[in-house]
Amino acid sequence: QLQLVESGGGLVQPGGSLRLSCAASGFTLDFNTIGWFRQAPGKEREGVSCVSSTGGGYYYADSVKGRFTIFRANTNNTVFLQMNSLKPEDTADYYCAASNRRLIGTMSRKCAWGYMDYWGKGTLVTVSS
């Protein structure tokens, strides 16, 4: 059974760091696009960061540019989101998701929840003093 499992969430003070992990169970993370999405209470789910299968294409939401970094492990079965300089507005449930679709266009277009084929159950990140 194909499954994505997130971990690494928790409570952190403003300015702190967390690293989220997304592990694939039952398959290799050999998707066209894989990334992280988040949903804060009362808000719509948004794309945070995505990377292409070749690792040559990246997307970061404007709100996280310069603070978050997405990368894959050498085994290719885990994707990470390094989050630095966290702010209270980063508080949300974070979801890992992946897509098999061969989309045309920018990474901004590809990093959309509606195009994802697999996703995890999420991990909560709370940024608070």
Helix content: under 10%
Strand content: over 45%
Distance between the termini: 40 Å
Largest sheet: 7 strands, mixed
What is the tally of beta strands?
A: 11
The value of Rg in angstroms is: 14 Å
Order of helices and strands: EEEEEEEEEHEE
Give the mean pLDDT. 91
Helix/strand/pairing category:
mainly beta
Query: Uncertain spans, ≥5 residues at pLDDT below 50?
Result: none
Number of helices: 1
| Shape type | globular
3D structure, described in words:
The protein is mainly beta and 129 residues long. It is built from one helix and eleven strands. Helices cover 3% and strands 46% of the residues. Strands 2, 4, 5, 6, 9, 10 and 11 form a seven-stranded mixed sheet that branches. A four-stranded antiparallel sheet has the order 1-3-8-7, with no helix packed on it. It is globular, with a radius of gyration of 14 Å. The mean pLDDT is 91.
Any key phrases for this structure?
129 residues; mainly beta; seven-stranded mixed sheet; four-stranded antiparallel sheet; globular
In brief, what are we looking at here?
The chain is mainly beta and 129 residues long. Helix content is 3%, strand content 46%. It is globular.
